Amino acid sequence: MTDMIDEDRTSSDFDDDFEPFDLEGAPELPAERYLDRELSWLAFNQRVLELAEDPLQPVLERANFLAIFASNLDEFFMVRVAGLKRRIDTGLAVPTNVGRSPVDVLDDISRAAHELQERHAAAYQELVRPALADQGIRVVRWTELADEERARLREYFSLQIFPVLMPLAVDPAHPFPYISGLSLNLSVRVRNTKTGRQEFARVKVPQMLPRFVAVGTGDGSDDGRYLTLEDLIANHLGDLFPGMEIVEHHVFRVTRNEDVEVEEDETENLIQALEKELRRRRFGPPIRLEVTDDMDDVTLGLLVRELDITEREVYRLPAPLDLGGLFDLARIDRPELHYPPRVPTTHPQLQPSEPNRPADIFKAVSRRDVLLHHPYESFSTSVVAFLEQAAADPDVLAIKQTLYRTSGDSPIVEALIDAAEAGKQVLALVEIKARFDEQANISWARKLEKAGVHVVYGLVGLKTHCKLALVIRQEKGGLRHYSHIGTGNYNPKTSRIYEDLGLLTADDQVGKDLTRLFNELSGYAIEKKFKRLLVAPLHLRKGLLKLIQAETRAAEAGRPSRIRIKVNSMVDEAIIDALYRASNAGVPVEVWVRGICSLRPGIPGLSENITVRSILGRYLEHSRIFSFLGDGDPQVYIGSADMMHRNLDRRVEALVRLVDPEHLLEIESLFDRGMDERTSSWHLDGEGVWTRHSLDADGRPLEDLQNSLMQQMAQRPRSGKRR
Question: Whole-model pTM?
Answer without folding.
Answer: 0.89
